[in-house]
Write a structure and sequence with these properties.
One of its GO terms (molecular function) is heme binding. It is a multi-pass membrane protein. Belongs to the HupC/HyaC/HydC family. The protein is mainly α. It has one domain: Transmembrane di-heme cytochromes, Chain C (Fumarate Reductase Cytochrome B subunit, Up-down Bundle), CATH 1.20.950.20. It contains nine helices and two strands; from the N terminus they run βαααααααααβ. The protein has a two-stranded antiparallel ribbon. Helix 2 packs across helix 6.
Length: 223
């Protein structure tokens, strides 16, 4: 008997767009952030004129991408409450199901197939993505503390009273910078693992994985 499959919309268009905007922003923030921490390049300037503004350019891009990440994350959290992300919210049911946890871990250890899921993410994925969301919030807050410490007018002046208690809680601006740097390394570690696991899922369980974040569609057996 021929096996039939049906297409299921797993990720909405906005979810996919926000995913790639955040991914590009994080890559750009890592690159510009490491340059700001250690400016290993400098333009040649033999005239003595003040034209070597590469550091200022990198700082500008870092700020632009940082605020872009914050804005997209806020909209992404709002999107989770809408009908478009109903399948993603149903992942919570799988998260509190020990049998699904056991099935997922067993499949990752190559002892069985992937269990049927009610939502878009398996429990391990959901736990990881919640951790990444907390990382984004933490690195955004530490970035805003650093921003308010440099820019005392406009937005910086507006958020300074809100950021000052957080700066004190961290033990001073030097510690905030250190925390910001350490959290960056958390993303550096997460990205290759995320790409590998998504690719592994695509190869091991065709119909899901990397292709769904492009098309938004996964294929399930039609019972």
């Amino acid at each position: 008997m021929e096996t039939r499959y049906r297409a299921v919309l797993e990720f909405s268009k906005l979810t996919r767009i926000f995913h790639w905007i955040r991914a590009l922003a994080i890559f750009g923030l890592i690159a510009t952030g490491f340059y700001l921490a250690y400016p290993f390049l400098a333009p040649n300037n033999f005239t003595g004129e003040p034209v070597g503004f590469l550091y200022a350019l990198m700082r500008s891009w870092h700020l632009i991408l940082g605020f872009l990440l914050i804005a997209v994350t806020i909209f992404r959290l709002y999107l989770l409450l809408t009908k478009e992300c109903a399948l993603e919210r149903r992942s919570i049911l799988d998260f509190f199901n020990p049998f699904v946890w056991f099935g997922v871990l067993k499949s990752y250890l190559l002892f069985g197939g992937h269990p049927h899921l009610k939502g878009a993410y398996n429990p391990l994925q959901l736990a990881t993505y919640l951790g990444v969301m907390l990382l984004i919030i933490a690195i955004s807050l530490s970035g805003l503390v650093l921003y308010a410490h440099v820019y005392h007018e406009g937005l910086g002046g507006f958020i300074a009273p809100l950021m000052k208690p957080l700066e004190v809680l961290c033990g001073g601006i030097a510690n905030v910078r250190l925390i910001h740097h350490i959290l960056t390394w958390a993303f550096v570690i997460f990205i290759p693992i995320h790409i590998y696991m998504a690719s592994w899922n695509s190869a091991k369980f065709p119909g899901a994985g990397v292709d769904t974040i492009f098309s938004g569609v996964k294929f399930e057996k039609d019972e």
